[in-house]
User: Fold these one by one.
Assistant:
Number 1:
Amino acid sequence: MTATLTVRGLCLTRGARAILQGVNLDARAGEVVALMGLSGSGKTTILRVIAGLETPDAGVVTAAKAGMVFQFHYLFEHLSAIDNVTLAPMHVHGVSAAAARARAQGLLDQLGVGHRSGALPRELSGGEAQRVAIARALAVDPPLLLLDEPTASLDPARKNDLGDALRTLAASGRALVMTSHDDDFVREHATRVVVLANGAVVEEGDPREVLANPRHPATRELLQVERARLR
Amino acid sequence: MRRLVACVGLVLLAASAHAQAPAPLRWGGDAEGGAPFVEADPSDPSRVAGFDVEIAEHIAARLGRTPQFIQVAFQSLDQSARRGDFDIGLSGIEDIHARRQSLAASIPYYEFREVLTVREGDRERYRTLADLRGRRVATLGGTMAYDLLLEAARSHGITAVSYDEDVHPYSDLANGRVDAVVLDHVLAERAMRRNPGLVTHAAALAIGHYIVITAPDHTALRDQLDTILRDAMRDGTLERIFRKWNVWNEDQPALFARVLGTAGTLGTAGTNPLGTPGTVRTVGTDSSSGAIQLYLPSLLRAAVITLALSCFAMALAVALGSLIAIGRVYGDRVTRMLLTVYVEVMRGTPVLLQLFVIYYGLAAVIRLPAFIAALVGLGLNYAAYESEIYRSALEAVPRGQMDAARILGFSNFQAVRLIRAPQAFRIALAPMTNDFVALLKDSSLVSVITVVELTKQTQIFATNIGSWLLPGLLCAAMYLMMSLPLGYLARRLEERWRMPGA
């Protein structure tokens, strides 16, 4: 099976600081890839480069059309939940209003926020807003979905719901790449983990193995910091 | 102790000496474009010169007081006299009924003719006001000539155009904005020296007189003025002054003879006993309800002009302001710099100046009708303020939303149109409403370029009935009737569109 996403030798410098120093990354349909690393390791920047929001100094990105869900969801504040979802299908892809609404309502239902379709973003809870943002990204049916810290604003029960939803999305033939601090969530729901340190990949593999027996010092440090934070 | 007493004594002495020196005679006039009446002395601009100046100085000398000039805008002379800003006022002030009723006015000291001035080429075509049906005829607002034109508007179908001073009616006649000017022959003669290519028909459309005004309770001073003026007619002082300023003609000895012949009744009856043939009487002020009935229709028409002007100017300001804001947020460096210069120039200079430049300054290049010039002037000025509001509102929309839009495949233009601008508009709504209310009031400035809007019409009303109370209250009520619903509407929209952080 060919990769939905191939990243080779990605380098990006901001001023004097090298943020990415030769990153390689692949993602295939059905995979949920988790990028882990301490703050400043370059996780979010990788997502932004893949999405086309940043231009790298060197390296190749071969990616299918990507959808992205931001950590601070960035819903369009003047539009209701369902109008946030239908805006791109209608104006970018020329889908009729009726068809766009039907599909949007289906996505919102599937993500468990169908009853909130008429609400404005400021009336939604953090978890609801995030699921609306996922629906918005999925409305144009991207083969690749990028999620920046999707668990950041969720309580444990909601995290499990989200994890199930993500695995369902992957199973339906998409590749998912997310950044996360939460090793429990990654262990439970990701199919592969990629650990970053100082803008480069230092370790990757099955989350259960990598996180149980970290080989690279950066991975061990990451887990320690995470434990300390939870305690 | 003795030293203290001496000191107190000295101070008292000085004070009483000061009190004994006669107070200066404060006399009011308008030096703006006021030759040969009152003008800044060309050889020493801090002093004034003119025949009214010399008459004022003569009066002061006869009263044993020092003349002190007080600059007052021509249109405000009556109000200032009533407030006591000066002791006597003279600046080509016309003898009209309403003025005699509300102020203590002297006997007439000069007789003038209202004359018709036209372009050389129209000399045969436009000989009287009746020839000017459908044409624009200009004059100085708040004068007998203006009332004459209002009368002609009714009887001959001309359009009366009111100016705040007597220079631009003639320059606008020369450049074709108006087709005739009606004003005092003194002003017409001066204007023809300034604008070659104009001719004045000698026939008088009306006869008028200049008088000296004082506060209504200064009847004793007024009687002194009458005595001094009569003496000046008898001993040749007035003739000498008028000859010096080139305004002496055969009408004056006739006036003097009439005034001196009827000396016993002059100045005390409260009306002009000369009957001034051909004079247009201003609207009577016998009852306030009558005055309201007379002036309400014209006030309402003026309010419509104010509202229309404000709405069109705001529409222009919103459209242009949006483009400027988008240019300043999205444009390249040169565009941003040029737009910044535009905004700073428009915000940093008075809108009054901008109106003058657009209407009079550009007249050689493009001759805009007054209403259009007013609309453009206010619109261009307010566009600068609106653009700043929109720019900060655009920048208040989180950048993350623009990233989200880009990933979803929206073009830059779509992202602005569908996402950024609608949110910015909601944020900008409150400050925009403020600006619209401010514009509604600033629109009163356009009277300087001859648009008669609500404030100007109120001023005309007030001048004619000699009181600001009733016209002022009516005018204020009309402005509030326009601005209050607007504020209400804006609050309703804000409630509905409440934005986070707005």
Note: The longest strand of chain B covers residues 198-210.
Number 2:
Amino acid sequence: MADLPGDRNRVVVDGDVTTWAELRASALPDPAAVLGTSRQALAAVRTHVDAGTELLVAASGRVDEDMRDELRGDGFHVVTDAGTSAPTCPREPEPGRLWILTSGSTGRPKRIGHTLGTLTTIGRRQPPRVWLCPYSPGTYAWWQLVTLSLTQPGQDLVAVDAGQLDEWPRLAAEYGVTAVSGTPTFWRQALFRHGADLAKVPLVQVTLGGEPVDQPILDRLRETFPAARVSWIYASSEVGAAVVVHDGRAGFPREWLDHAAPGRPLLSVDGHELVVRSPHHGATLDGPVRTGDRVEVTADRVLIIGRRGSDEINVGGAKISAGVVRDVLHAHPAVAWARVRARRAPIVGQVVVADVVADPSVADADIARWAAERLPEYGVPRRLTRLAEIPVKETLKTDVG
Amino acid sequence: MATLDRSRIRDLMGEVLAARGGTLPADESTELRSLGFRSLDFSELALRVEDETGTELNFDAPGLRRIATVGDVLDFLQDLQAA
């Protein structure tokens, strides 16, 4: 059995305070796809460290029956609460291989091969922290916190399953959480739901990732947690953690483009698309990877706007980025969250529309006026739909825009 | 299928214009150009009709035609609902 530097770190899961060492589980079948809760996923990971089991972990809700059949067809034993289903096409396991599922925001989730080494992207010793992990088991962001806690002493982990997300500030206070990592959608929902109460959680580190990060959300988090370092990370299953920014500003410094340094990702822009050559890439993804993310290069920053193609709305031949419109709406002081999309319309083909979660005392006309003052006429949302709550997928992301 | 009558479509057209600081005149022969009612406003009006009826309009059905006056807009959207 392998001992790890993080074995004595505290791991809180389902209200149970334990350690990585205590999470060691009985042997897993090999290869295994463990579809379950945070506890089952964390125990499987610790077992992988000891036995080298080829492993995929995911929340059961993210893997439908078709995908389970696919996994069994690809040689995996599918382990769930209901028991273990044997592979339909058994094969030899690949020792040390870890698989993660992409978030599926661009379609059906696909598997990307990694190892514990390629998933461990934080090598520098970090100050002691108690991390809240709201991410769904098996996602890239979840692995980032899990590998940090496994490989460095003093990095405790408080895992929160989807059903506990609404009450995370209470759990954070109860277990002394000092650092939280979440998507911008997660943070918007937290600010909308809990408002000033969030400030009672004495965070020293606030991290965002998984979606484009705009300046207003960074500013609001800085106001809410004045003692915290606010960081954002650009990472994906394919290229790993490629950008980490701590200066409180959206985007990353322009001088980081095309700057080669040993052990660091090489960032470039080709046709408004971010291209990354990363040492943390997944298996078979060596070399430059076109990320599919659209960027805007300003005088001093590179701003990540959103997905290419799906981000663009064509209004009678005039093109506008849904991400740009979304950022304008997010900058409105009363808007907690916005989703921008195209809607079919006569004459112009498409118009921009938006779903928003906003202070009910602020009229639609006020939000429309705000947008009209900052966007070209064809970029102003022509319909605003008010939602009572911020819709959050299991991946903590917004599904569109 | 729910449909909106001409009067209700007029009300919605008035709301679209009001949002841009304009008003809808009673005379249906008024030129859209003089009102500043443009393609995007027309599109928005169609979406408002869709939202109110809960039905997606088939924009291709009535074919191309000249839409120059307030009356043309109301005719077009009435025809669209019937298509």
Note: The helical segments of chain B are 6-19, 32-35, 39-53, 70-82.
